[in-house]
What we know:
This protein is α/β, with parallel strands linked by helices. The strands form 4 sheets. It has a 7-stranded mixed β-sheet with strand order 11-10-9-12-13-15-14, with helices on both faces. Strands 1-2-3-4 form a 4-stranded antiparallel β-sheet. A two-stranded antiparallel sheet has the order 5-6. Helices cover about 55% and strands about 15% of the residues. The chain has 21 helices and 15 strands.
Amino acid sequence: xxxxxxxxYIGGQAVIQGxxxxxxxxxxxxxxxxxxELHTEARRIVPPEKRSRVFRIPFIRGVVSFVTSLVGGMQxxxxxxxxxxxxxxxxxxxxxxxxxxxxxxxxxxxxxxIALIFGVALALVxxxxxxxxFTDLIATAAPAVARSQMYGIWYYLIEGGFRxxxxxxxxxxxxLLPDLRKTYMCHGAEHKTINCxxxxxxxxxxxxxxxxxxxxxxxxxxxxxxxxxxILVFALAGAPLDMLYEAVPMPGFVESLISLxxxxxxxxxxxxxxxxxxxxxxxxxxxxxxxxxxxxxLLQMLTxxxxxxxxxxxxxAAFERTKQMDEDPDMPETFFATxxxxxxxxxxxxxxxxxxxxxESDAEWILSISLNIPxxxxxxxxxxxxxxxxxxxxxxxxxxxxxxxxxxxxDTEFYGYPFxxxxxxxxxxxxxxxxxxxxxxxxxxxDSMLDLCTGSGAxxxxxxxEAARDKSITVIGxxxxxxxxxxxxxxxxxxxxxxNFVKSDLFENVRGRFNVITANPPYVRSEEIxxxxxxxxxxxxxIALDGGRDxxxxxxxxxxxxxxxxxxxxxxxxxxxxxxxQDIVKIFQTETRCDFAMVVKDLAGVDRxxxxxx
Length: 614
């Protein structure tokens, strides 16, 4: 037997036409649709170390793990069923259309709900109620002396025997169903992949194919332990119940109901003990514990089958993605594109954005643009088709990488005008519109305007367009970045704005005097760059952000030369950070002969623009 040298915490389960793998902080489901294409859904989950300490206590952690695995596994199973159905979107039936229009839900939602209720009911009937019924029938049919001897441990042994027999018969029955046999093949792929990794072998199809199908942490083995341990737990709990039945005579159906409820209450206890037992045995490959593992291995011979290479590819892809996400907390999630409710899709998107510190309103923008509906209409429930969902997720998953939304779309709106943007320029902010508003109010017929640090040209182009409505002015935009100037020129053409752009480090290559000079210079303190949101820090140009040690370097440089480029009575209008306005005023009052300085607040009441008169 090969020795396992690389044990992993990653486990999994088979799903419809694929495999789900679950790690500490991520759960990945990979399926292959009827067209042979792989689809991946990788979701973040709460890692054990971030759970309450109470939920990490032995036995309690088993109950938590059982519940979370059950819920997560059921969700993965249902999601896989939705993902593999890639047939052409047909004309909806009257029932499905009625559900969309009246109930605001998909047909898949109905099927999932029915399947969940039916599955839970079937499990309770087969593995709780039916064993009790058969045991009670035997006890009732037995002679009085034998019946009295049956109660106690023998009753629970017989009940457990029925439960185990029903479990095996159930598995054998499922082997008759072709679709479930394929699921058992995917189960085999899951085990083989985990074993291959634990043997320290590269995860190739050939290596995985040569590994065994049995694994110590299999859910089938867990269920077997649950069935065995339930006998002991139910027997211990049943003793006081038997005493109660003897002391307080009650109808048989009442006794049965109390016993049934007692078993349901004790299921978490059984699950907790079974989890710890399974975890303990998985730590060793010693032959001494083989007799304890053997029954689980025998059952796994039924619940696993040799997989196809395509199934192995699904399992390997799911394992590797889960491992990567556990190791890299910044790796983004991915989602299946399926028909779903608008509110559900929006809530899932906002939840993912919230987890990584992205503005949740971006989810609304993505849905609004992708579905071509106003943001105000997002409160009206509707069904998002598979095609629409795919379009939404393409943008959503790119945003999860941290890339700013407007870089993804390649354009944005500023002061009512469209602007192209990419990584060469800052994305124009709404608060900068205050700068444009103040500049336009100062411009008169025949004036000239200079926009320093023009970037995308947003201020220069917006001012030129606004002023052109009723006056003739000259506008020049200056920037040190040739890449930024290329974007600015494109935006001027896009908006038919008459703006001349020049490559210049502030005033270096500028000639002439101007009535109005505007600037939105870099003003972020150097040491604060690393603490900016990821989408700003990692994607927007640092040259347009870094204002030096105190964020005021560019204001000092502008103050040193501004008077030489302004006509008498000219106005210098500067955007600034929220706590910098008064410091900027002091700089100009100290280093220039300005006539006055005033501060303009933005709509949030924050000091945003400084106006300097000469």
